[in-house]
Amino acid sequence: MSTVTSQIEVPAGVTLPIYMDNHATSPLDSRVLEAMMPYLTNKFGNAASRNHSFGWEAEQAVETAREQIAKLIGATAKEIIFTSGATESNNLAIKGIAEMYRERGNHIITQVTEHKAVLDTCKRLEKYGYRVTYLPVKADGLIDIEDLKRAMDDKTILVSIMYANNEIGVIQPIREIGKLCHEKGVLFHTDAVQAVGKVPVNVIADNIDVLSLSGHKVYGPKGVGALYVRRRNPRVQIAAQIDGGGHERGMRSGTLNVPGIVGLGAACEIARNEMDTEAAYLRGLRDRLQQKLESELDYIHINGSMEHRLPGNLNVSFVYVEGESLLMGINDVAVSSGSACTSATLEPSYVLKALGLGDDVAHSSIRFGLGRFNTQAEVDYVAAKVIDIVKKLRELSPLYEMVKEGIDLTKIEWQAH
Amino acid sequence: MAYSDKVVDHYNNPRNVGTLDKSSTEVGTGLVGAPECGDVMRLQIRVNPETQVIEEAKFKTFGCGSAIASSSLATEWIKGRTVEDALAIKNTDIVKELSLPPVKIHCSVLAEDAIRAAIGDWKKKNGVAEEAAVAAQAK
Fold first, then answer.
1. What residue in B sits closest to A393 (Cα-Cα)?
2. Is the ipTM of this complex over 0.85?
3. Structural domain range at position B62
């Protein structure tokens, strides 16, 4: 009897389950927690309280964090606005600019593989009379700068293109996009959630006007994020989307999440100090994983550019094996799949589809998100386990058998259901 | 997604995985689903020409754990039944046996389709009309 259960030995020093889904969220660094603890306990003041030491202490901590974040992205402290996370940052940036610059124009340009926080925000604006262009991506996941150039017109007020993609990890040509925007007098927003702290991001060199970032993707806490809003050349104005006490220079009302902000600041400082060594380390682990998979398995497809990519990302389709069934076989490893069966909508990943891959390849994809706390022993175990389960599931796969027999699957009349 | 123990059991120990000679007149092959939908099932039966009893059933499935379990269960259930008895198996029986959640009902539908397709293929090969099969069963 065939069996799918894997008997791969767990190496010494590896504890199960293994977390390898760091694009979804990252664990809180203990050094970050340490920095936060006083603000979760006795330093509980409201940063907006101007007339006692509890408030001053909280405000001081917030301003330190603002500096730490600004430093990581080449900004100044005054240009950092705190939010509840990157979804809010993206909403505030896009809606806030659309509202503020309405008289100048109503055209926004974004691209098809953006996060839903950008796409759905743009869709809502379309209901309010804005025009949105969704640029396609090439097979490697990157936009064509010529497409962007052609899409711009005299009504274009904003370009929103993500720095690095959350599924396939590809890094867009941000500097060129920003340069083009500045030449045309169009504002440039980037959702840099996956890039900040992982690759060097500099708002000046990269010509970025507005940038979204999040705490929990950089080993900081959940529920806190920031928006960089450029103050000079050009000075960007954003209409507040939440009304209230006028916090954050009037752009985002609401009592500041002081412990969260302190954590985000600490996380950014650690990232700034350790990014270079960490990136090299992660690239090494990622390449090792890729090499092991490729040496043992046929019909595997790497999704997205390997050249322009986050060091910790590997997105692979194990063709002729369905993603959810693979996840079930490697249930002591936390990764994600672009398979329809793993999504709430029962649609395969729109990011992978945008690369021009067939749905069948999207259904077979697994995203490995390596992070700070992954080890080489973990990579070796995960690779061995994936190889083992993929081989077993291919024994079960009619498609794999047919392809091995030389049957062209595209010539078969399938009954879609 | 949490799977029922029975789905996990079929996934870990799929029954009757394999391939029968599809050129044999005793063998019926059903291939249902589509790669772009994320599930394809191939179910094969070998039928005794005298008794019309399904003596062997094999499957291979590209799909999620529930799809694998549904087809594995289907082969278990049809083995030893006559072709007409096998046609009585409904997708709802599979849903019940495997405790499939609503989002996985299509897996059971596909398994039922696979049974029908395999039997249909066998009938076509053997020139068995519906009535003849029923008559044989009544004997």
1. B62
2. yes
3. 5-130
